[in-house]
Specification:
single chain; 359 residues; alpha/beta; Rossmann fold; 2 domains; six-stranded parallel sheet; 12 strands; 39% helix; 14% strand; D-inositol 3-phosphate glycosyltransferase
């Protein structure tokens, strides 16, 4: 089976294959975009275009879309799926994001999903909770296939037990729209000042650079005050490459996610590979990804429940690392590869039946 898998270059998609190799599935490499984005050389997606589909229809059997369509209008997505059907191509869509973390207004993602989900021959999602939401909103069944590992299997190392004074990390990244780090950071800075934790606050350079796209004066003020607080380290840097991100997370006992909305988290998956515990809000389906994710709620004012955050911190000292083994992840990946092949065969069979009826 020849799969146009968008984007093939992303590590998530690469790890849908059996680590020992596959005979039945071949995923097409991403065509190089004219103006690639640093850190995502596969974007914008060249294959996400009805003209490309017409020109290359004889090169693939099935079209599998994951993500990367944030800036594609619903009418363009409609043309894409219509072109696939016109050429007798099976269409599979993996619903990663029911709420897009990069978009303030959920209506934008909703309009895209209203095109993609009804048009797909087969749907996949990552958690049972997301599958229930898809069934409720669109009346479609989605195959639940979990997120594969992100850490390369050869780079596995056992994480030590949590320290007596845990090292906690909060990374504001580039302050994408779904993040609400400031009220959580204030609680963590206070806990560090009391000597309960060591705190690492990270931010990308574009957040603290006046005139940069993601500059945020409130974050700058927070980091300036935090630098004067005992047991707090502030680190401002360019976007980490894979190895730097792994080293950063390995050095933490707990990584705190401050998402106001979202669906699933690759950051959480990488933490589970590395053995770093995660504290995440009870939005989306982060807590469906793996058991053992620590939790807090946002209150009606948009602040974290202080008692829940402090209880999570108090539970850390001496606890075991939260880590999947390389063997577990390799075996899971074999199951993930087999599940995708079954979905692909069902989608191809459904299209063949439809072509037979129309013929």
């Amino acid at each position: 089976m020849r799969i146009a898998s968008l984007p093939h270059g992303h590590v998530y998609v690469r790890h849908l294959s059996d680590p020992a190799g596959e005979l039945g599935v071949h995923r097409l490499p991403d065509p190089a975009p004219a103006h690639p984005v640093p850190g995502a050389p596969w974007w914008p997606l060249v294959m996400l275009d009805d003209a490309w589909i017409r020109q290359h229809a004889d090169e693939f059997d099935l079209y599998h879309l994951h993500f990367g369509f944030d800036q594609v209008a619903p009418e363009d997505l409609r043309r894409i799926v219509d072109t696939l059907h016109e050429h007798g191509k099976a269409f599979v869509y993996t619903v990663h994001d029911l709420r897009n973390p990069h978009q303030v207004d959920p209506a934008t993602q909703d309009a895209a999903l209203d095109v993609l989900i009804p048009a797909a021959d087969e749907l996949i999602t990552l958690t049972d909770g997301a599958a229930r939401e898809i069934e409720r909103r669109w009346g479609r069944a989605a195959e639940v296939i979990p997120h594969p590992h992100l850490l390369p299997l050869e780079r596995w190392h056992e994480h030590p037990p949590v320290r007596d004074v845990p090292v906690v990390g909060l990374h504001v990244k580039s302050m994408r729209p779904n993040m609400n780090p400031l009220p959580v950071a204030l609680l963590l800075v206070a806990a560090a000042a009391r000597g309960e934790i060591g705190l690492v606050l990270d931010a990308h350079t574009d957040v603290v650079t006046p005139g940069a796209r993601h500059w945020d004066g409130d974050v700058v003020d927070l980091l300036s005050r935090a630098e004067e607080t005992p047991n707090v380290r502030v680190h401002v840097h360019e976007i980490y490459d894979d190895a730097e991100l792994e080293d950063y997370l390995r050095g933490l006992d707990l990584s705190v996610l401050t998402y106001r909305f979202g669906t699933h988290s690759g950051w959480l998956e990488l933490c589970h590979d590395l053995g770093t515990r995660v504290l995440a809000p009870t939005v989306g389906f982060y807590h469906d990804q793996h058991p053992g994710v620590l939790a807090f709620d946002w209150d009606d004012a948009g602040d974290p429940r202080e008692d829940q955050v402090l209880a999570a911190l108090a539970s850390l000292p001496g606890s075991a690392p939260w880590q999947a083994s390389a063997e577990q992840r390799a075996e899971q990946r074999r199951r993930i590869a087999a599940a995708h092949e079954r979905v692909y065969r069902r989608a191809l069979a459904a299209v063949a039946r439809e072509d037979g009826r129309s013929g």
